[in-house]
Amino acid sequence: MANEPHTIRASMIVEAPEGFTSTSQAHSHLKVRSTVYRPLRSRIELYRFVLDLNRRGVTYNKMQKTIFQKYGTKLSKASISQWIRGIHHPWGSLNQFSLKSSPELAYVIGAILSDGNLHNHGYAHEMMLSVKDPDFARAFGKCLAKILSKKKPYGIHWSDKRGRWTVQGSSLILYEFLNRDWHELKNSIEHCEKCKPAFLRAFFDGEGSITRRQLSVYNTDLQLLLYVKSLLGSLGIETLAPRVSRPANTILKDPSTGKTYRTRKDCYQMHLRRKALPIFQKHVGFTISRKQQVLEGVREKSRPLFQWYQV
Is residue 307 included in any domain, yes or no? Predict the structure, then answer.
C-alpha cells in the first residue's frame, strides 16, 4: 500500500475471521493482526471508485489491477464483492450518513460555515452549534438528525458557561465530509432549487444582521462572501460589493466575559439592496423568528421611516 498522510498503523488482538492467516500462532483462537488503515475519506473515495467500475461492467480482476495502479492498494475480490452487494461499507458500524444531497444537508453546511463548529475529541467527531437563538439551534438539530437518519431531532440545551443554546451530534462520516474546503461542498449546496435557499437561510441565520431597513451579512472569508453573493444573484437578489467592516488587529471586548481579544483577520460586510428584501423574504428568509419579524416589518409601507430596529 502506498504511503499516505495520517495513515494509522494498528496492532490488535482480534478473533480470527474465516480465511485470515496470522503471522503469530501463539494462541489457537486469538490472532495478532498488524494492519495499515487508510483514512476514512480515502476509504470512501475507494468505495465510490469500486461502485463506479462495477456500473461500467469492469470485471473483478480488472478492478484489482486498476485499483492497484491508481491507489497502490491490493483490494481482495471478497471485499470488492461485499461492497458491490452492499454487505459491507467502508464506514462499518459508524453513525450513518448517506452522502445524499438534500436541503437539510445544505442547511447544516450553511450553519457550520457561519456559527457552527467541528470538534474532534479523538473518540468523538462532533458537529456543534452554540447560539443565542433557540429556534436556530432547534432547526440545526432537526436537520442534523434528518441526514443522520435519527428518529428524533437532537435536543438543545442551555449552557451557562457560554450563555448560549447548544446542540451537537456525532458522526465520523459527516465530520469527514464537512471538514474540508467549502469549495468542495458546492455540489451539495447547489444540488437543487431547495438546497441553495436552505444553505443561504442557515448562513444568514448565523452571519446575517438586519438593522433599520438594511440587511447585511458578515464573514472573514472574502471568497465565501463572493460565493454567497453569486448564490443570491441566481435567485434575483441584488447585493452591493463586500467591503472591510473591521480590519485585522482590531481590539474587541467580549461583553459576556469582559475579556478583550485582538482580531486576526479582516471582517467583510456585504449589504443587500433594499429593493431585494422582498425577494429575499420570499425565497430565503430567516429561521430565527426575531430576525424574520423585522424582515417582514420593513415591507410595511405604513411603518415610520425613523423607527430603528436592531437585531
Answer: no
- Looking at the chain, list the stretches that DSSP marks H as alpha helix, in order from N- to C-terminal side: 40-55, 60-71, 77-84, 103-112, 134-147, 172-178, 186-189, 195-207, 222-234, 277-283, 289-297
Domain that holds residue 83: 40-93
- CATH code of the domain in which 203 resides: 3.10.28.10
Same domain, 44 and 158: no
d(CA 144, CA 202): 12
d(CA 6, CA 120): 15
pLDDT digits 0-9 by tens, 126-163 = 999 999 999 999 999 999 999 998 989 999 999 888 88
Question: Mind giving me the DSSP string for 139-177?
Answer: HHHHHHHHHTT-SSPPPPEEETTTTEEEEEEE-HHHHHH
Q: Is residue 254 part of a domain?
A: yes
Q: What are phi and psi of 66, to 5 degrees?
A: -65, -45
Domain count, the chain: 3
Evaluate if residue 11 carries a pLDDT over 50.
no
Domain membership flag for residue 304: no
CA gap 104, 212 in Å, rounded: 31
Does the residue 305 lie in any domain? no
Side-chain-side CA neighbours of residue 133 (13 Å): 19
Whether residues 149 and 54 fall in one domain: no
Give the number of other CB atoms < 10 A from CB of residue 110. Answer: 29
Question: Is residue 35 a contact partner of residue 10, using CB atoms and an 8 Å limit?
Answer: yes
Shared domain for 109 and 254, answered yes or no, is: yes
Is the pLDDT reported for residue 267 higher than 50?
yes
What's this model's pTM, rounded to 2 decimal places? Answer: 0.69
Mean per-residue pLDDT over the chain, rounded: 81
pLDDT band at 311 (very low <50, low <70, confident <90, very high): very low
Hey, what amino acid is at 79?
S
Cα distance between the two ends of the chain: 55
CA distance 173 to 40: 7
